[in-house]
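User: Predict the complex.
Assistant: Input components as received:
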Amino acid sequence: MYLRDLKGKEKDLLGKEITLHGWVKNHRPQKDFGFITFSDGTQFNSLQLVYDKENVHFKELSSLRVGSSILVSGTFQESSGAGQDYEVVIKDFTLLGDCPEDYPLQPKKHTPEFLRSIGYLRPRANLFQAVFRIRSVAAMAIHTYFQNQGYIYTHTPLITTADCEGEDQMFKVTTFDMSNVPMSEGVVDYSKDLFHKPAFITGSGQLQGEAFAMAFSRIYTFGPTFRTENSNTKTHANEFWMIEPEIAFCDLENLMNIEEEMLKFVVSYVLELASDEILFLDKFQEQGLKKKLEDLVSSQFTRVTHEEVITILKNANVEFEFTPEYGEDIAKEHERFITEYFHGPVFITDWPKDIKAWYMKVNPDGKTVAAVDLEIPGAGELMGGSQREEDYDKLIARIDEMNVDKESIDWYCNLRKFGTCVHSGFGMGFERLLIYLTGVENIRDVIPFPRTPGSCEF
Amino acid sequence: MYLRDLKGKEKDLLGKEITLHGWVKNHRPQKDFGFITFSDGTQFNSLQLVYDKENVHFKELSSLRVGSSILVSGTFQESSGAGQDYEVVIKDFTLLGDCPEDYPLQPKKHTPEFLRSIGYLRPRANLFQAVFRIRSVAAMAIHTYFQNQGYIYTHTPLITTADCEGEDQMFKVTTFDMSNVPMSEGVVDYSKDLFHKPAFITGSGQLQGEAFAMAFSRIYTFGPTFRTENSNTKTHANEFWMIEPEIAFCDLENLMNIEEEMLKFVVSYVLELASDEILFLDKFQEQGLKKKLEDLVSSQFTRVTHEEVITILKNANVEFEFTPEYGEDIAKEHERFITEYFHGPVFITDWPKDIKAWYMKVNPDGKTVAAVDLEIPGAGELMGGSQREEDYDKLIARIDEMNVDKESIDWYCNLRKFGTCVHSGFGMGFERLLIYLTGVENIRDVIPFPRTPGSCEF
């Protein structure tokens, strides 16, 4: 059986014999007995196995090495030792897969850099057992929230010729032999490529998501997205997962309601279904993590305009590195100040139109757009959303004003011709959420196999 | 409110005024009154709106065009007409977004080819309202099954340098200017590309999935995969979604148990949560669809070896186009015969090793591998799985025998050095499942925005 199947049945199993398969996480062999920290990875907490000299396998058990896979049968009982409630007294034992003395993942403190270098083994380490389990639970939380509300999960395409993030940030995809790209009169002859035109892997599913929102009212995407950014920071990866809901008949106020409700649901879900993992991370990764998450669930999110934020920043008795200015973007230090100022999450709305995207709805003032960023204490911007321009003529004017290539998105613009309506959507970077949920600082450590400049391992 | 919010509250709402926003799907204006088929896409069935001459908006209502978005308030009541239980008598009305007379999606029969050409509008058509809603429900069914069983949802990387399907079937990804690829001594200088080496978008997450199974015992992937196949058939697309579970301490028999249980769960879930959609498809797409699905849930899947299948085919009194032979692959006509022969789904096991992949475990006979294909009546092969070779030396020998590039997968082979164990996994093409669930014949019609050779629209 798997460890997870024990959960909740401990009392019934007392004194009974059970059979388990899994791995030796730690081993303390003594002269006359020994303790094995055992796990099969199906729950966060490990189980203690004990054996003594009377066991016919004593010699073999004593020499068991960390990392080995084993099959054991034994009696499930209450443990008299500190640190665990239950243990198994081994009766029968088989070594399934040995592990050499120089196994890289010994039970001691390793640097994150070293663990990244053995990325195919690191999910076995406690930290990553917690992180990737939370990744799975949080993903399910997101699906559960949106499905419960009747949103349609939409698989927008990865390969695309249209993208709202701009082509210069996108990877090209091709079937060409790169050493012999077919040219015709000095330009690449894309008629010979599989799609007969230049193609990319997408940075966003928003445009196609809007088409589906115009059919189902409420949809969400949840899939991988890509950016070519050549940036080696703690928060950038070239491949990451995004959630992008699009909602018809929804204005900016409603959008904020949805963002707030969704985030609180996801955090509550993780607190409930990954409680052991959160306790571990609270102890070893970010002190106060559990309280931080609980506070978020019970907090009231503030709503404030970009202009008000700048006024608050200007009036603050603080020497900022970057001077806050009306009409300009705000820096990380400003985000931090604002969430501290309001003691909680803050929706900043109505941004200067010149620093935001072409598809956002311009407000009646002609200077700002109906956009909203959600700033979270200790995490910065977690979601970015906006009301989309639903008027065909205004959208085309914006596209021309901002020199966006119209040709590949004519169908997108046409959505405004056929039963257009007020609609809004937002994007949430899944890894950014995970950094917040786990207290892990580097995006490389919340992605199973991260892809960053110069690094595409495993 | 959204239509979906009415569900189950109809009796309470009788005689009350409700406000709805959505689209005109059809309109039958008469001299003194009119009927509007209305939907916001949040449930499959539409709602009838009625109005008459007394309405102050009568003139405007009478000229409403199909495809327009509207805001209506009115009284919810039982309908005396045939075809629906309830209707709304319009009181107040606002036209939100007009729709021109030449709107391409008129309420009449369209060819699939035409609908593909307006792929950004087709989700509004009844067929695609059903299909893409089932796509969402089936995706949630898969997540629900695996999460309930404690599997860890693992986001394996899309960009990769290692792939179990072979590089010739993979798209290259690059940041290079395609008209000016940097060369050095006659070969592409990949040190100048973002990852400093050739990179691809993946055809499978299996290899990385196995690394996670060796840490969590039970994992699944669910994400997009890609093949460059230049094949224009009903069943091929260059981008599709796959589910790939990997399970440690699991042999082929157990794998079949899991496949059978999972499929029955997913089909039951869809029958329950998409009952309106299944009824529609049963009527207009595949007669007997509902019974076909119900039969699957109650059926016992047969388990038979490849050798036994060949014997059955050879003894059959049937003139096959392709002669069945021991040691060779079977054709679609054979698959069809076998599922008919056993009156239900059939697991075919123990395939000739020469026609299967390098990572599959070779059976003691030295001639076959512990692989299994699941054949479904009317759908052909739905899942393909195998026990993976868990012995390091045997795996390396197979890799050498089959001329697989060892260098990029050394880490994968190393998994066998550090606590190896019997493990198995399978892959299920999500679109193949959807074709089976919906009765739709062409893969292009179960993918929101399909990518096929020469076609990368929207």
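The two ends of chain B are 30 Å apart (CA to CA).
Let me know if you want any component modeled separately.
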